[in-house]
Amino acid sequence: MKNANAFTELLLTYLIKKKIATIEELKTILKTQSRMTTFRRLSELGYISSCSHSGKYYSLKRIARYNKYGLWLFSSVLFSKYGTLKNTLEVLISNSSEGYTASELNRIIKGKADDVLLELINSMTVNRKKISGVYVYFSRESNSGRRQELARNDSIQYHDNLSMHPKILMNELKAALIIFLSTLNEKQRRLYAGFESLKVGHGGDRQIAELLDIDQRTVAKGRQELLSGEVDVDTNRKKGGGRKQIKKKFQM
Fold this sequence. Notes:
3-stranded antiparallel sheet
């Protein structure tokens, strides 16, 4: 009979080849009927369970290849570094720049988020508001939620303007932006680019970087500074600048 280490290696070899498996498949590989024994071997390897398909699929942390959202999709089975789908949606909404609609989240998770979103609303984990006839889900934290709502409203106005004046955007507006940016110092350009990125929403850093011909990391830094609310408005003022102090004269 093989020892425990041999069974663990057998399990590792199988998962590296197949990537994912159900507990029944793993029990067959280990030649056991015990779920406890199977999970013990999985724990030794560092396992993860799917947040779709009722969590019935398993893989290993070393195998998962998460995208920028912290998700890994393999053969229509979704895994998340945040665990359950409920936790995943909460994190995605809380970390978003302008909240998410259900359809936007559906595209991200490659599945249906509607039922879980209703659970999050009923448990008061996230907020939602109807904007332009569509429910948008925001962070429950008041300051973050308010910033997300403002960014969402600005984004809607921004895209409406683009659809009305596409030629102006590509020609006159871009030329005007370049002239405008030349009047700003480095910090002001960064913050302005970050603000425009917030208005665009997902993918805004890349779009604004291309539009303004600046580094995408600069746009991201400006956006993060604005969201943090920790912008020192006095750092650009030269020493001795500003209104001169008025000295009163007294007659003797």
